């Protein structure tokens, strides 16, 4: 059993023989504070981490965090507390600044109009987050889910939840771990202690804006900018085979029906092509790849993407745009009007197709845990697509090595994304250096370009529209690797 002092858990057990009463009293007070919903801001420590950027967290720690953070109180109640406090502080700030206004009525109207419209959106976002988390454990999993090799939750029989509603092996292990380490805790689940309220707020905002980017009509422009080049090159590399030879006015209905089934979505020659999408985010690019007929594996480690991704793909929507999100309510800079940040956006823009989802597998966890040293993934994939991803990994050289190892000789690596580099410790490679290193890891560059003006989760009604010039390349794995 791992040390109970993990930073991701609040340990209420007395493990020492001294100062027992004092420790128990302190622990009880801490639990009472959490139960009362007091999410205090905490000072960031040097060793604190950012959600979704946890390159060095152990598998068991990540599993514990997944258990704690993926609870309804963390996703919905936690969000509600933080946002209400955020707007309360902002309202106080506005009142302090507006004291100088001579017209008290004008002062009240300015404050009330802004704050009340924004605060009214909070429970609507809470409702969406409650829907996202609802049924995560027992729902009928339409999406195949796998765990890292040799991890706490892996098993030969693990993965998708049982279709009869019983807990899968993976879910049983998760529940057992949670029960063992929290059997004396009677409290609302909270976010891990080292995360500040600002961390949580930012990650939930990112969750909501990425839902809009991937699964709304508002996000179509960004998706077309970023995803279409990858999809177009995939189709060029693997053109469809036309096996339908029944256009000779043959009235044999049985033959026609068989050909229609075999050519569902024209994927008869693509369903054996394995495509890996690491850092898949909310999964729309991977879904579009699977819709072209490819056998697609998604890899994502951020729970703030995994949970809504699974919910969207496993929900039997009756209609498009049946859910509402208010993603910009706390983004207060560069606003045209209050209406521009309190606008509602409907999701999803499509109803995910079951036949497409059947070609998808979700690998939950860090890319290196899954693919770096596992023999079963060595030269396993025909294609790897990295989209807005290579600059979010702490060790970019390790990433290149891993990608090279999982692609078959003659396979392809397609990349589209900026070189923003989210970590100070990351090697900040230039575009030219990226190309040289890709070649050094056993690839031949077939196409390279810089795509201009790509945006990411932009509010089209904002006054601020940051754009990226994106590194795009298609590389083919050499048959003989001289590396």
Automatic annotation (TrEMBL):
EC numbers, comma separated: 2.1.1.22
Biased composition annotated in UniProt, kind: Low complexity: 17-35, 147-162, 242-269
Domain of life from the UniProt record: Eukaryota
Entry keyword set: Methyltransferase, S-adenosyl-L-methionine, Transferase
GO biological process annotation, one example: methylation
SMART domains given in the database record: N2227 (SM01296)
Similarity field: Belongs to the carnosine N-methyltransferase family.
SUPFAM superfamilies, sorted: S-adenosyl-L-methionine-dependent methyltransferases
Protein name: carnosine N-methyltransferase
Region Disordered, residue ranges: 1-58, 147-178, 239-269
Class of this enzyme: transferase
Molecular-function annotations in GO: carnosine N-methyltransferase activity
PANTHER family the record matches: CARNOSINE N-METHYLTRANSFERASE (PTHR12303)
Keyword Cytoplasm found: no
């Amino acid at each position: 059993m791992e040390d109970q002092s993990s930073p991701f858990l609040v340990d209420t057990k007395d493990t020492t023989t001294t100062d027992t009463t004092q420790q128990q009293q302190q622990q009880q007070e801490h639990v009472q504070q959490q139960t009362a919903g007091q999410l205090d801001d905490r000072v960031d420590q040097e060793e604190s981490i950012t959600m979704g950027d946890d390159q060095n967290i152990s598998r068991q720690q990540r599993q514990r965090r997944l258990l704690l953070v993926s609870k309804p109180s963390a996703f919905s109640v936690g969000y509600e507390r933080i946002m209400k406090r955020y707007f309360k502080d902002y309202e106080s700030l506005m009142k302090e600044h507006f004291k100088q206004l001579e017209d008290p009525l004008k002062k009240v109207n300015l404050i009330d109009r802004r704050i009340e419209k924004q605060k009214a959106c909070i429970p609507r976002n809470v409702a969406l987050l409650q829907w996202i988390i609802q049924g995560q454990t027992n729902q009928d999993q339409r999406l195949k889910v796998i765990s890292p090799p040799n991890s706490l939750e892996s098993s030969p029989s693990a993965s998708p939840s049982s279709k009869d509603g019983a807990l899968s092996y993976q879910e049983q292990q998760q529940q057992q771990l949670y029960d063992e380490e929290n059997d004396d805790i009677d409290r609302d689940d909270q976010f891990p202690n080292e995360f500040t309220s600002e961390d949580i707020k930012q990650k939930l905002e990112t969750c909501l804006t990425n839902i809009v980017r991937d699964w709304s009509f508002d996000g179509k422009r960004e998706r077309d900018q970023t995803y279409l080049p990858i999809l177009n090159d995939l189709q060029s590399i693997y053109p469809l085979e036309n096996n339908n030879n029944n256009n000779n006015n043959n009235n044999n209905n049985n033959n026609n029906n068989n050909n229609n089934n075999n050519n569902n979505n024209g994927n008869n020659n693509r369903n054996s092509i394995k495509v890996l999408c690491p850092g898949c985010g909310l999964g729309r690019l991977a879904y579009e790849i699977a819709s072209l007929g490819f056998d697609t594996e998604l890899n994502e480690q951020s729970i703030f993407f995994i949970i809504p991704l699974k919910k969207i793909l496993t929900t039997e929507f009756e209609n498009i745009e049946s859910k509402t999100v208010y993603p910009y309510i706390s983004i207060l800079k560069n606003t045209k009007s209050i209406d521009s940040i309190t606008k509602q956006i409907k999701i999803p823009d499509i109803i995910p197709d079951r036949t497409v989802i059947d070609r998808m597998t979700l690998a939950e966890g860090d890319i290196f845990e899954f693919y770096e040293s596992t023999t079963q993934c060595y030269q396993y994939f025909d294609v790897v697509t990295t989209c807005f991803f290579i600059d979010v990994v702490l060790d970019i050289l390790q990433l290149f090595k891993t990608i090279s190892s999982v692609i078959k000789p003659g396979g392809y690596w397609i990349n589209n994304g900026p070189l923003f580099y989210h970590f100070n410790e990351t090697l900040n490679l230039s575009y030219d250096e990226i190309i040289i290193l890709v070649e050094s890891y056993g690839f031949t560059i077939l196409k390279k370009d810089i795509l201009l003006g790509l945006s990411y989760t932009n509010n089209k009604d904002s006054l601020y529209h940051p754009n990226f010039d994106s590194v795009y390349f298609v590389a083919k794995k050499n048959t003989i690797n001289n590396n």
